[in-house]
Amino acid sequence: MDGPGALRVVPLTLGWVELPITVSLHGDTTGRRLREPVPAVLVETKQGWVLLDTGPNPALFADAPLYRRFHGRDPDIRSTLPGTGDPLLEELARAGLGLSDIVAVGISHLHWDHAGGIRHFAATGAPVYLQRAELEYGLSAQPGPEANGMFRIDYDDPAIDWHLAGGDTTIAPGVSAVSSAGHTPGHQSFVVDIAEEAGGGGFVFACDAADLTDNIENEVPVGGFIGCSPEDTVGSIRRLKALAADKGYRVVPGHDPVAWVALTAELSARWP
Ligand SMILES: [Zn+2]
Questions:
Q1: What's the CA-to-centroid distance between 208 and ligand 1, angstroms?
Q2: What are the backbone angles phi and psi of residue 153, rounded to the nearest 5°?
Q3: Are 206 and 132 within 8 A, CB to CB?
Q4: Residue from 208, 174, 184 nearest 43 by CA
Q5: pLDDT top residue among 4 and 13
Q6: Distance 4 CA to ligand 1 centre (A)
Q7: Residue 206 Cα to ligand 1 middle (Å)
Q8: Ligand 1: distance of its center to the CA of 17 in Å?
């Protein structure tokens, strides 16, 4: 327990969304559809487990009128949960953990597929790290946020211990958040530095600043953006690439089915 940095990274898959690829790649004209994972990341730090993003809220799937309201808006986008229960609780249990093991939560942005599990931490009291600009947008006048995929029931709870940042910030030893606005007004990505005694290296988790490998390698704007032009989203992609290059890390895209499945296999072999 000597050097700085995190000890272990465990990728979680909390759902799947089948959608037109234009949702991820702005301007794509191929008409292709893609089945994208809904990821979250557990990081073991020297202060305990940190959870990055929280997946969907299953109550909004289980209840038919709520499903129609929240997920029936765009028939082109079909979302499914991995099991019958709460995806976050199920995946934590598979990792041998419970809610009380999570000492801090980082939220990339308030879209339903990232913010749907925040409610659990209103009860445990774990601090929840988010950009102030993101919460301000999320609590702004409707229908803006809800029409843009942010469901106020997921995050409008006075019991949440928000830690709101106005830029880059440290969440725990080896885990930091970096501002990458564009996809949403206060989107943030995460940098994880692995301690030398755990093998070293690290990752830049782009989250939805770059859904797919194509967004990163070919600097294709993401398909979803709020309050900016699609081209503006490339600024955040370039920032994350520069950060990763500087540290010798890779940028992990937020919803890439190939990269995510490969990373999950790689890390479960590295930390069985
Ligand atoms: Zn998103």
A1: 5
A2: -60, -25
A3: no
A4: 174
A5: 13
A6: 31
A7: 11
A8: 12
* Residue 45's pLDDT band (cuts 50, 70, 90): very high
Calculate how far, in angstroms, residue 183's C-alpha sits from the geometric centre of ligand 1: 7
Which amino acid appears at position 204 of this protein? V
Kindly report whether the peptide bond that precedes residue 230 is cis, defined as omega within 30 degrees of 0. Answer: no
- Residue 197 Cα to ligand 1 midpoint, Å, equals 34
Going from the Cα of 215 to the center of ligand 1, the distance in angstroms, rounded, reads 14
pLDDT in tens, 223-263: 999 989 999 999 999 999 999 999 999 999 999 999 999 99
Residue whose structure tokens are 């009128």: 65
Q: Is the pLDDT of residue 266 over 60?
A: yes
Ligand 1 centroid to Cα of residue 119, in Å, is: 18
Instruction: Tell me the pTM.
Output: 0.97
Q: Which listed CATH number (3.30.70.20, 3.30.365.10, 3.60.15.10, 1.10.3720.10) goes with 8-270?
A: 3.60.15.10
Whole-number Å distance between alpha carbons of 218 and 195 = 31
